[in-house]
Amino acid sequence: MTRDEIVRRLAELRDEQLKLRLRQGTESLPNPLRLRMLRRDIAKCLTFLRQMELAERTAQPTEKKND
Fold first, then answer.
1. Tens digit of pLDDT for each residue in 14-65?
2. Is residue 36 situated within a structural domain?
């Protein structure tokens, strides 16, 4: 997945999580474990984004200053 796809998926997951949290406050959820699954999927997306960020940093050459 590309960075944009992961960011889009992360937004979808967070939106669904918000809706379920609000719904949980007013009624019982048909699948309460879905909140746990969403939390874990969000963490996975954030982990992938962080790995991409670190990979980009290590791929960039570092500049050395000569004094």
1. 999 999 999 999 999 999 999 999 999 999 999 999 999 999 999 887 666 6
2. yes
Q: How many domains is the chain partitioned into structurally?
A: 1
Q: What's the gap between Cα 10 and its chain centre? A: 5
SS3 of residue 60 by DSSP: coil
For 7, the domain range is 3-59
Please tell me the pTM assigned to this model.
Answer: 0.82
Give the integer Cα–Cα distance in Å for 34 and 42. 12
Kindly state whether residue 40 falls inside one of the protein's structural domains: yes
Tokens encoding 36: 């746990």
Does the residue 64 lie in any domain?
no
